[in-house]
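Hi support team,

I'm opening this ticket because the web form for multi-chain structure prediction keeps timing out on my end. I have pasted the exact lines I submitted so you can reproduce it. The total is 838 residues across two entries, so I didn't expect it to be a heavy job. Is there a limit I'm missing, or should I split the entries? Thanks in advance, R.K.
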Amino acid sequence: MLPRNAFYAQSGGVTAVINVTAAAVIETAHQHRQQIGKVLAGQNGIIGALNEALIDTSLLSAEKLAGLRHTPGGAFGSCRYKLKDLQQHRAHYQRLIEVFRAHDIGYFFYNGGGDSADTCLKVSQLASQMDYPLRAIHIPKTVDNDLPLTDNCPGFGSVAKYVATSIREASLDVASMAKTSTKVFILEVMGRHAGWITAACGLASETPEQGPLLLLFPERRFDQADFLQKVQACVAQYGYCVIAVSEGLRDNEGRFLSETGLTDAFGHAQLGGVAPVLAQLLQAQLGLKCHWAVADYLQRAARHIASATDVAQADALGKAAVELALAGHNGVMPGIFRLSDAPYRWEIRPQELEQIANMEKPLPADFISADGYSITPACRAYLTPLIQGEDYPPYKNGLPHYVQLNHTLVAKKLPPFEV
Amino acid sequence: MLPRNAFYAQSGGVTAVINVTAAAVIETAHQHRQQIGKVLAGQNGIIGALNEALIDTSLLSAEKLAGLRHTPGGAFGSCRYKLKDLQQHRAHYQRLIEVFRAHDIGYFFYNGGGDSADTCLKVSQLASQMDYPLRAIHIPKTVDNDLPLTDNCPGFGSVAKYVATSIREASLDVASMAKTSTKVFILEVMGRHAGWITAACGLASETPEQGPLLLLFPERRFDQADFLQKVQACVAQYGYCVIAVSEGLRDNEGRFLSETGLTDAFGHAQLGGVAPVLAQLLQAQLGLKCHWAVADYLQRAARHIASATDVAQADALGKAAVELALAGHNGVMPGIFRLSDAPYRWEIRPQELEQIANMEKPLPADFISADGYSITPACRAYLTPLIQGEDYPPYKNGLPHYVQLNHTLVAKKLPPFEV
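Hello R.K., no limit was hit. The queue was backed up. Here is the completed structure from your submission:
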């Protein structure tokens, strides 16, 4: 049987290590040239497949390919574009199959979160209905860490390491200054619906002596009176207080705190930012000088302080995806299965996409302390292995030497398609 | 002659490397036990001297002392407390001399920015007037990089490395997503009066291919129409735009942009944050999806990505301060003198405090490009050496292993003093 080509695409918010997975897919495919021809990458994710904008990764130099392993962001471009159900978006799914057919694509590797797991499943199903031979494999990736049936999601461990490091560092800063200046520091982190990243901030304080740290989880409704009391007690005891807050914190009526209170000169609600809202509140109600930071993309792009464990898993999952496809799997995702916490041992097991697509893994209730402001030992035991090890990028001129790819597209064979 | 004790204090905003200087002062003093007895550190800076809260650094273990070299923040506590002129604050200056006399302090090392250089000079002058033998040495430190007569200020190089790395990483993120999502990313950085840190962001883009980067300097008044045009042109050409903005950006009437436009529900101005103001503007005027980050303390506490050059200079200046004092200098500051850009060669020269105190070193006009939105080659040549080399802290449990000191104070000998 002649080798068939593979299609790889990045989906949704990018991470510090998604390119590690990309490199692993490409390199593993190269090791099986008798079964896999070229790996074609979708320019800007699945939109690249719809538009037949396919990047020929066989033209990447060995140097560029190696460089991908330490370059954050999505080197082939990603997209926020959700394919709806087969009924509504049937033409889109059929177009995908047409493009795959035109370029003899027999392997579909889709690297993303919950939505893309769903898309991957539907593509697999439609291919089967259309008698088009395709092995569709989803590869997990999301800093939100909310996919089921995998111990964690690549990208999350590096964000966890970044936020815990950053808040530990900022804690030392505010502790130094609290006598005469800033008393409260607030760090706003990602995770609108699930508090995984907020929980990771809790790793910064391993003992009470490492500083007072209040976590505000999106899973808990914000209780203003209780919060003010907690901060006041912290400042009374330690002289200062450090707070990590999820961008998705909501008030008692379910409204995002970031959308309350602040308006521009025209009365429009302010764009995001729960940290400044809390700072305003503490200043007004307790008269405490506050500083605040919003990490935003810095947290998920921080390849300079990636977790070596995260990098290893992003690599292993890319490799496993190709191997699963070669072994005949279809409609599955390689998932990380945890064998033990300490030492952290894990292996990769295939999981059925039907059980994954559109399911979210919430932060377990027993990972949040009874008072709602810190993490439990069970949470710490879960998180700690994920941030182990440093995987530093090479530096040039004092800065990380990240690669940038020139996207060379293969010749189009089909008429255009209106996405 | 019997050895006399030394006093060391940290002043103003702390940095990622001020503890490197502290360790160098203590260790260099230890190497000269015949001349210097104990090094007593002010708890919370100069306030510690006024309150006679003196930390006995001779009790620090070798392990803790070594740990100081990779721990950000001010390990002895710092303060924002400016001593006014001798007329207004004479009692305070006299109190300092009394405390020094009570603890046989013959050496005064003050580690800070412009204000503390001024205080150091005044203490030196008053000691002389009071016939109290004292050698007062100022040691430069400020992320603002605004001290004259030194090539740069310890702390700045590490912030520069952090912000340039962070914005380079975030640029890759937004470049990946711009097709269907965020088109503009804005990073707000410190430097209310001088654009040194904003300029450092410019290092992230070494070639036009490394991404479009607009810098908004506090030295230039914000021209809204021009800015909107620039962003629009960027997005048209590259598909996205990345912006670094100084917290101190002002509008045409001289008002901080962070204080315009946004108010809380009660009509109070929002606490800080020029990045969200710009995001709001771009969203409203150009309909562009924006993300923004405010680095705040994260930038000046980021010891995990400190510049090795910065660490080396923080160390050398601490050592030089002690050596200058031993050589009989008084009322001076060891300054870094640049011998060449590439290779970067520098040496330390004593500078008179009279020429330093309360002087600010502005960003030279020829460091900003003609259009006002980027740095010139001269600026790049100045900045590049300062971010060279990585000086990683040790890690434990996946996080930087920073030390925390137990402050053991020497017994008080004087009645209390009302600060």
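A quick check on our side: The domain at 4-141+306-357+392-400 of chain B is CATH 3.40.50.450 (Rossmann fold). Let us know if the file doesn't open in your viewer.
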